[in-house]
Design a protein that fits this description.
6 strands; DNA polymerase, domain 1; 6-stranded parallel sheet; 2 domains; 9 helices; homodimer; Rossmann fold
C-alpha cells in the first residue's frame, strides 16, 4: 500500500497564524485595559467565540465580530467607539497580514511534491485561505486545495478519495492533534504531528500513543523522510 | 454533445437571499435614521462594501462588519453602542435565518436529478452556505457542491471538469448575468438566466442577446424542459 498523497494543514503548519491571533489578543487586552483584567477578557472572549462557532465558523471575520461582541458585553453595551474602530482595524490588518512560510516548509514541500500528490486541507474563511496560499508562494506545489468547514474522519475520507487514491494510501500532516491527526487516523490514513509553539484551546487533544500509523515529528523537515519510509 | 451536468447557483436561485439582505438594510436604515438619510446611508454602505470586498469576500460576516464600519464613519466614530449591538444581532439573525426553497425549485431539481449530475456552485461564506444547503433539504439532490470565492470562466471550466464531463456538456443556471451566465458561456457551457426580482448592484450585467447557448427563463420550472431539449 504505497502512499501516493500527502495532505497538509495550512495555518500554523505552513505559516504563522496563531501568533497573529495572539498579537491581536494582546492589542485587544490593551484596548480594554480600563474595563477588564486580561484574564477576565480572555475568558469572556473564549466563551463568546465558542458560542458563535456554529454560526461564524473559523476565521478572522468571525473572530473580529466576537471581539466586538465581547467589548459590548463587558461594557454593558457602552463600548467606546474608539474601541470598536480599533477592533475593526485589527481585523482588517489580520486579513492583510503578510504570509511567510515557516522554516523548512519550502524545502519539505518542494521535495515531497516530486514524489507525491500534495493536497492542502484547511479550515477557515474561503477567500482568506485562498489569499494566504497565493501570498505564500506555495500554491503551485499543491495538486489540490480543499477549504473545509470541519475536519472529521469523513472529511479526510472524502478528500483523499477525490484527490488521491483513498485514505489508506495517504498521509496527513498538521499541528493540531484534534483536527489533523486523530480524524485522519480514523479515516485510515497515516498522520504526522508537527507541533507549533502556540495551539488554540479548541485544538488540543492527547497524542494517540502507540498508534501504528502515527508519528510525532519535531519539524516539517522530517516529513519527506518519514513519508518515504512508509514505502 | 449531450449535456450530462447541470450547475446551479444557490442564493436567489434556489432560495431567498437578497430579500434577507434588503430587510437588514431597512433595519439598518431605521437604526441610523437620526444620523443619515436612507439614500446617503445606502451609498456609503455600498462604497464600504466595495472597498472591503477584496478582504472580506461575499457573505453575511463581511456585510455585518461593513455595516459597523459604515455606522462608525457616518457618526465620526461616535456610533451609539445600541446601534453596534443591533447590527451584531441583525448579522446573527441573517446567519440563522430559515432557508426555504423558492417556488418550483423542489420539483425542478427532483426532475433534473434523475437525468443529470447536479452541481451546486455558489459564492459566500463556506460554513454558511453549507448550513443553508442542509437547512434547505435539497442537499441529497446534488452530486457535488462547490463553494467558490469568485465565479470566472476558469471556475466553471474547473468545476465542470472535476464533477462532470467538461463545460461543453454542462448547463449552468442562476439569477446573476454577471456571475452565473456570462462566465459559464465563456467557459463553453450552456447557460440559463432565471431572474430574481432583486439583484445586487454588483451582479448586474447585460444579457448576451443572440448567444447560441443562452436562454432567458421565466422560472426555474422551465429549466428541466430547456435542458432536455439541448439533447
Amino acid at each position: 500500500m504505497r502512499v501516493t498523497t500527502v495532505g497538509l494543514d495550512a495555518d500554523d503548519t505552513l505559516w504563522h497564524n496563531e501568533t497573529i491571533f495572539r498579537l491581536t489578543h494582546d492589542r485587544f487586552a490593551a484596548l480594554m485595559a480600563d474595563v477588564a483584567a486580561p484574564e477576565v477578557l480572555e475568558l469572556r472572549l473564549a466563551e463568546i467565540e465558542r458560542r458563535n462557532l456554529s454560526l461564524y465558523g473559523y476565521g478572522v471575520k468571525g473572530f473580529t465580530l466576537s471581539m466586538i461582541e465581547t467589548a459590548m458585553e463587558l461594557t454593558g453595551n457602552e463600548a467606546p467607539s474608539r474601541v470598536i474602530a480599533e477592533i475593526l482595524a485589527a481585523g482588517r490588518e489580520m486579513l492583510a497580514h503578510p504570509v511567510e512560510p515557516l522554516p523548512g516548509v519550502d524545502a519539505a514541500l518542494a521535495q515531497l511534491s516530486e514524489g507525491y500528490r500534495l493536497v492542502l486541507i484547511t479550515k477557515g474563511d474561503l477567500l482568506h485561505q485562498e489569499q494566504k496560499l497565493a501570498a505564500s508562494g506555495l500554491g503551485d506545489l499543491f495538486a489540490a486545495v480543499e477549504i473545509v468547514s470541519e475536519k472529521t474522519a469523513d472529511t479526510y475520507a472524502r478528500v483523499f478519495e477525490r484527490h488521491g487514491t483513498g485514505a489508506a494510501q495517504a498521509a496527513m500532516c498538521g499541528n493540531s492533534m484534534r483536527s489533523d491527526v486523530l480524524p485522519a487516523l480514523e479515516a485510515g490514513a497515516w498522520a504526522a504531528h508537527v507541533p507549533y509553539p502556540l495551539t488554540w484551546d479548541h485544538e488540543v487533544a492527547d497524542a494517540p500513543a502507540g498508534h501504528g500509523r502515527f508519528a510525532e515529528l519535531a519539524s516539517i523537515s522530517e516529513l519527506p523522510g518519514w513519508v518515504r519510509d512508509l514505502g
